[in-house]
UniProtKB/TrEMBL annotation:
Residues 10-428 form the Aldehyde dehydrogenase domain. GO terms for molecular function: 3-chloroallyl aldehyde dehydrogenase activity; aldehyde dehydrogenase (NAD+) activity. This is Aldehyde dehydrogenase. The lineage of its organism: Eukaryota, Metazoa, Chordata, Craniata, Vertebrata. GO terms for cellular component: cytoplasm. GO terms for biological process: aldehyde metabolic process.
């Protein structure tokens, strides 16, 4: 069996041979990736169900269709993204060709997380292939069924010389990081991101970090409370809160909270029935470790559980849960929840809400629910976050025209659509000159006489 460094060496030789440079090669690989997803959709859905009990609908819209849509978009557009971009010229460069050329970086490493184990591997890979790179994929070992399927399918469909899957957990990933890559694209927790950065520093490898954090949902002013409850419950409990862009906590006035709670109760019953554990639309917590982490958080909170709270360790089931009377120093407010627990904090004013948001790390997404445009605008103008969406959650990330990524502690860099292509490209500044105007050039050569300065 090949060692990790042999895999990387093999891909590097392929890259240096120039095989990935022609547009046609990239197009063929993207098309094969499309076939891979379509031919094996049933197996993919079954692996996602095994890993997280993902409901079929959620698995299709948030994994399979996300990859297919991204492929369609890249296949339709990447030829134009590859074209040189001519820039404005100065008088002294009028006769030159001045353009930006997008070049592949080389052999890149994509490390994925377990919560959307298909999408988080293949969406970045589409950008990397379109940009002409060779790619090592390192899916999450936590979502083991999907990891295994990815390792089986990729070599069957894509060029083995240019793309490889390396399996394993923390130790294997650390060993893999000792190899030299031209870019590392990491999706996962902030804690592990530090390990990735340390490894990347040794080779001065550029890194994209797709991390998480606490995404607020600020409900303020006049608001359609029934619609707000539907959209909030959907965004929070999709994949049972195991989404990097899930609303992590709600901020609202005490009066809004009182109006919201019965609507949340009603919506949760409408969506998942009276016994959510029996509902096929409720995913499970990915592992016992994460189940225990979430149950410990619930045990530590000083807030009051007003909806849900039921759990079953054997089944890794936690019911959609709402907690009120939560203060900023509560256990639920110290780290990203990443599970089906929704704390509600109250604030007295728009300014207090904005101050609370700004007091914390910049989130990956920020949601504002309000009928009042001035409220939405005020929050947008006075905060910072990776993405922003008013009156809904998660959906902003489905549009390939919008960059997807964090800011500060929620991540560095972005992808989706052209943004992914750019992340995996070097923007090479090119000036092609001839030998004309040599007499004019005399103006910049020594001796630097006074009269040359007056030019
Ligand atoms: P994870 O446990 O699957 O880890 C992510 C990857 O890091 C895996 O491939 C794993 O093998 C590797 N890894 C784990 N420990 C390592 C170590 N010590 N050294 C090197 N590699 C290691 O996933 P996770 O970290 O639990 O992911 C959840 C986090 O990811 C959440 O914070 C979530 O918000 C974030 N996330 C972000 C995005 C995004 O697009 N911004 C998407 C999904 C998840």
């Amino acid at each position: 069996m090949e060692t990790q460094s042999q895999v990387v060496d093999r891909l590097r030789s392929a890259f240096l041979s120039g095989v990935t440079m022609p547009e046609q090669f990239r197009r063929t690989q993207l098309t094969k990736l499309m076939s891979m997803i379509k031919d094996n959709e049933e197996q993919i859905l079954s692996a996602l169900h095994k890993d997280l009990a993902k409901p079929k609908f959620e698995a299709i819209v948030s994994e399979v269709d996300m990859v297919i849509n991204e492929l369609h978009y890249a296949i339709a557009n990447f030829k134009s993204w590859m074209q040189p971009e001519y820039v404005n010229k100065s008088l002294a460069t009028k006769l030159d060709d001045c353009f930006v050329r997008r070049e592949p970086l080389g052999v890149v490493l994509i490390i994925g997380a377990w919560n959307y184990p298909l999408q988080l591997i293949f969406l970045p890979m589409i950008g990397a292939i379109a940009a002409g790179n060779c790619v090592v994929l390192k899916p999450s070992e936590v979502s083991a069924a999907t990891e295994s399927l990815i390792a089986e399918l990729v070599p069957k469909y894509l060029s083995k010389d240019c793309y490889a899957v390396v399996r394993g957990g923390a130790e294997e990933t650390k060993a893999l990081l000792r190899n030299h890559f031209d870019h590392i694209f990491y999706t996962g927790s902030q804690a592990v991101a530090r390990t990735i950065l340390q490894a990347a520093a040794l080779n001065l490898t550029p890194v994209t970090l797709e991390l998480g954090g606490k995404c607020p949902c600020f409900i303020y002013g006049r608001v359609n409370i029934a619609a707000a409850a539907h959209r909030l419950v959907w965004a929070k409990f999709f994949n049972m809160g195991q989404s990097c862009v899930a609303p992590d906590y709600v901020l609202c006035s005490p009066a809004t909270r009182e109006a919201l709670l019965p609507e949340l109760r009603k919506t949760l019953e409408e969506f998942y029935g009276k016994e959510p554990q029996k509902c096929p639309d409720v995913s499970r917590i990915v592992s016992l470790r994460h189940y225990t982490r979430l149950m410990e958080l619930l045990g530590k909170t000083k807030g009051r559980v007003v909806i849900g709270g039921e759990s079953n360790q054997e089944d890794k089931f936690i019911a959609p849960t709402v907690v009120v009377d939560v203060l900023e120093d509560d256990a639920l407010m110290q780290e990203e929840i990443f599970g089906p627990i929704l704390p509600i904090l109250t604030v007295e004013s728009l300014e207090d809400g904005i101050a609370l948001i700004n007091h914390k790390e910049k989130p990956l997404a920020l949601y504002v629910f309000s009928d009042e445009t001035s409220v939405v605008d005020t929050v947008l103008e006075n905060t910072s976050s990776g993405g922003f969406c008013s009156n809904d959650g998660i959906v902003h990330m489905t549009l390939p025209g919008l960059p997807f990524g964090g800011v500060g502690a929620s991540g560095w860099g972005n992808y989706h659509g052209r943004w992914g292509f750019e992340t995996f490209s070097h923007q090479r500044a090119c000036m092609l000159r001839g030998w004309a105007l040599e007499r004019l050039n005399g103006l910049r050569y020594p001796p630097y006489t006074e009269d040359k300065l007056s030019w």
